[in-house]
Every structure is written in C-alpha cells, then in structure tokens.
Amino acid sequence: MASKSNIQCEIRHYKPEDEDAVVSLFRYGIMEHIYPAFFKAMSNPDHMGVTLSISMAGYVLGGSSYFMALLAGGAWAGLVYYCCYEIYDGYLRERLRTDMGDIQGHFLDRPDSCFWVAEAVVWGRPKVVGMVAVVGRRQEKERGDSANGGFDGGDGSYAELNWAIVSFPRRRQGLGTRLVQTALDFCQERGLDSVVLETSSAQTAALVLYRKLGFEHTFTHTNTHVHRWVTKLARVSVLRMEMVL
Asked: Residue 202: which H helix or E strand, with range?
C-alpha cells in the first residue's frame, strides 16, 4: 500500500521505469560519504601526527622549504583520500554489477524481499527522491555468537536492510524514517524474526536514525572488498546493527 504525507511524497514499489533515477540516487547516496570519511580520517590524532611528521620531513629535506612541507603533507592527504574513494567507489561498482543490476530479479521476484522508492512531485513532475530495500533470508543464521554480537533466540529467519537513501533536498522531513519503517512493517508481515544491516562509520546521520528506530549496534569490523591497508588508512569501519521484531 502506498504511503503519503504532507510533503506530497509517496512510497511505492519499484517499477522498471525507475531504473535510471534509482541508479543515479544510489550512486549519489554512496559517493557522498567519501568526503566525510576523508575529513574524519584526517582529524584522527594518529593521522594528524603522521601529517605533521611528513610535512616536517619535507621541510627539512627540501632545504627549509615551506613548499616542500606543503607538498609532502598534501601527498599524504591525497593517499588517504584515495583510500576513502576506493572503498566507496569499489562498493558502488560491485553493487551495480550484482543486485542493483537486476532489481526486479533480486528483490521483487522473491517473496521475502522488496524494493521501495519514494516519489515526490518536483516542478510538476514525479521524481524518485528516496529508496530502501530488504532481502529476506530463511536459512539458519548464526545467533548468540558473542564474537559477532548476535542475538539469541528466533528461528533464523531475518532480513537484510539495504540502502535507505534520501536525496539531499528531501532530508530532515522524516522521509528516511518512513522508508525504513515501511521496510520494517514488511518484514513483520512476512513473519521474519529480525532485521540486520551494515553501515560505515562515516554515515553518522544513518547511525542516528537506526538507533532512534530501535536498532542495536552488535558488531564492528573492517572487512571490506578492498585491501586491508586501504581500509586501515581510510580508518573506515563497518558497523553491524540488528533489531529483533
């Protein structure tokens, strides 16, 4: 059932004609985290110390040259930025190659999975301004494992919440909450036991939203699709959160 509010926004199931708009929104929603991740990494005391040391080395080796100090520090900052970029860009490419490359097959053709978009009227024309997806799992999930921060109990059925993304002009209007709640209601209707998600440490607004809705942080790891040293330099971690329904 479609859901509406006073901001003239409707949440409905994905349609094939939404593909271009959804891919564009997805690309924006992932890549926008590069700069927050970079600034967060560079503000870390360890990175600040490295930056200062490298700049000082450049100053000394360059014959007391402020230009060489700036160049050396900039090179280090550039490396950190590259690492942040590689994490999010690599994730984007992988998702577009797999599940986001076939939304109908991966989400809408499966009974315990679904994909929603939020549509608003912009300048008299409908426009996709938000999205969220869930993938239902009926096989056994490891639960009660203290190493993974899992919850005890339940029959193993759960859903993975993916990509609660809202376009920038529509944020702070409650749309993100509505999208996630739509997904949670669907999971309850399907009789799933819990909902899990993973988000990066740079996505602070998403973390606030998920905690507000009742998700609990259960586990943190740094296992990504890129080399370990890239993740380490970017200082990006992946937070696993879970809600029992």
From this structure: none
What average pLDDT does this structure show over 58-62? 90
Structure confidence at residue 155 (pLDDT):
64
For 217, counting Cβ atoms within 10 Å of its Cβ (0-12 exposed, 13-18 middle, 19+ buried), the class is middle
**b/e code 144-166 from CB counts within 10 Å (16+ = b):** eeeeebbbeebeebbbebbbbbb
| Helix spans in 43-97 (H) | 45-61, 66-97
| CA–CA distance, 190 with 215 (Å, rounded to integer) | 19
- Six-digit token string for 90: 């690599």
pLDDT in tens, 36-54: 999 999 999 999 999 999 9
Among 42, 27, 29, 26, CA closest to 84: 42
DSSP 119: E
